[in-house]
Structure formats: C-alpha cells, structure tokens
C-alpha cells in the first residue's frame, strides 16, 4: 500500500501533473503517517484521487456534448470510434473540437468568397444597366443617378401638387393628366385663332394664310421702295413725306 501511495504521490508531484485543487489536510491521516514513520505528503491523495475521478466522469459528459455539437455542424461525420470506449481521453475531445473549428473556418472562408462574388455581380449589373465601361466610372455614375433620381422625385412631387393628385398616384396617371391639360389648351388656342381670323373653318384659315403669302411679299417690296425714294427709314413717315410732295 505504501508503495502504491508513494507511486501516486510521485505522479502528483511530477511536472506533468495538474496543480492540486485541494490543499493537504492536517487531520488524522497526516498524524497516522507520522506515527507509522512513512513521511508526509500522502494525506491529500484520497481527496485528489476522488477529484480526478470526478473529472474523468465529467470528460464523458463533455464528450457527449461535443458529439451533439459535432452532429449539428458536421452531420455527415457520424462515425466516432470512441463511442464504444469506456474511458475518454483528452485527445479524443481535442479531435472533435479541431474538426468543428476547421468546419467553422471553412464556412467563414466560403461566406467571404460568396460575398465577393455577389458584390462583383452587383457591380457588373450596375455597369450594364447604366453603360459604365470601367470600375473607376462606377462611383461618378452612381452620383449622377442619385442626383437625377432626386430631381425626378422633386418633379413628380411638384406635379402631384399642381395637378391636385394623390401622392400615391403612379407616373402613368400624372402623364395622362398632363396630356388632358395639353388637349384642353390646344383646343382653346384653336378657338382663339378662329375668333381672331373670323372663321370657324380650318380650310378658311388655310385660304387666308395663302392670301397673306400672296399679298405680303409685293406689299413689303413696295414699302421698301418708298422708303428708299423718300429717303426715310420709318414706315410712319411715308404718309407725311408723300403729302409734302403735293
């Protein structure tokens, strides 16, 4: 028994042993060891061994939790040679943790790659839509599109207010309303021209314009000749000049 205790004590005091959580007691075990002449240091062994036994049991629970996590992240990796083992080693847990970390790193790299691919596709689509030949022209064209969009938004808002339309009215309604107004204005202009020329017939308007084209050029030539003969420059001075010639 003393050999076993000495062996356990040497293991506990080795550099590879974990630090002791429980301090050595100063109770009857230590006194017993002193009385038997076997030296000091063995009184903490039962507590330490019990603590290690609890830790070994906890390794199984930790292994079970890591396996559940591994099945969630790595559903294709169902084989586990440690399932049938009664004892679980730290190396077994480390292998599962490394596999999970590797999978997470691969997913992160793939997500970054897909993000770059998506961004490249968006830029290419923007270049195609707005006729941008180079990447350096993307930002200026974006600014231009933003400015034009703001101007069009302001125009549509003003038209909605002027035409007394609801703000939710689509552009097609705005265009139709403007077209109706243009028809009304054109109709009024036609009526005013007809009243001015004293006719309601479009053919009569055409005849009057043709008569004007026949009459006006000779009349204009006559006026120019009179201005030259009378040595005047104003049409209003023609009549007084002619009267002076009498």
Automatic annotation (TrEMBL):
The answer on whether this UniProt entry bears the keyword Transmembrane helix reads no
Summary of subunit composition and partner proteins: Directly interacts with tubulin-gamma; this interaction determines centrosomal localization.
A single cellular component GO annotation? centrosome
Q: Where in or outside the cell is it found? A: Cytoplasm, Cytoskeleton, Microtubule organizing center, Centrosome
Q: Which gene encodes it?
A: Cep70_0
Signal peptide range in chain numbering: none
Its domain of life?
A: Eukaryota
Instruction: Recite the UniProt keywords alphabetically.
Output: Coiled coil, Cytoplasm, Cytoskeleton, TPR repeat
Keyword Coiled coil found? yes
Q: What is its main location?
A: cytoplasm
InterPro entries linked: CEP70 (IPR037692)
List the protein's name.
Answer: Centrosomal protein of 70 kDa
Name its GO BP terms in alphabetical order: cilium assembly; regulation of microtubule cytoskeleton organization
Q: Origin organism of this chain?
A: Pardalotus punctatus
Cite the GO molecular-function annotations of the record. Answer: gamma-tubulin binding
Q: What does this protein do?
A: Plays a role in the organization of both preexisting and nascent microtubules in interphase cells. During mitosis, required for the organization and orientation of the mitotic spindle.
């Amino acid at each position: 028994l003393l050999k076993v205790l000495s062996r356990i004590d040497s293991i506990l005091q080795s550099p590879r042993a974990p630090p002791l959580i429980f301090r050595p007691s100063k109770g009857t075990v230590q006194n017993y060891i002193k009385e038997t002449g076997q030296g000091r240091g063995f009184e903490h062994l039962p507590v330490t061994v019990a603590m290690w036994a609890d830790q070994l049991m906890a390794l199984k629970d930790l292994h079970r939790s890591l396996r559940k996590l591994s099945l969630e992240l790595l559903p294709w990796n169902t084989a586990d040679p440690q399932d049938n083992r009664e004892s679980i080693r730290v190396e077994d847990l480390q292998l599962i943790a490394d596999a999970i970390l590797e999978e997470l790193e691969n997913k992160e790299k793939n997500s970054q790659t897909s993000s770059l691919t998506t961004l490249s596709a968006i830029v290419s689509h923007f270049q195609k839509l707005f006729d941008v030949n180079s990447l350096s022209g993307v930002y200026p064209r974006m600014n231009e599109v933003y400015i034009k969009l703001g101007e069009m938004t302001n125009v549509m808002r003003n038209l909605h207010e002027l035409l007394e339309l609801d703000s939710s009215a689509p552009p097609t309604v705005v265009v139709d309303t403007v077209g109706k107004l243009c028809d009304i204005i054109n109709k009024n202009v036609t009526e005013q021209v007809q009243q001015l020329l004293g006719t309601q017939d479009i053919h009569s308007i055409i005849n009057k314009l043709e008569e004007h084209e026949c009459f006006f050029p000779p009349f204009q030539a006559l006026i120019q000749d009179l201005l030259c003969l009378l040595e005047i420059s104003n049409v209003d001075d023609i009549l007084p000049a002619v009267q002076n010639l009498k």
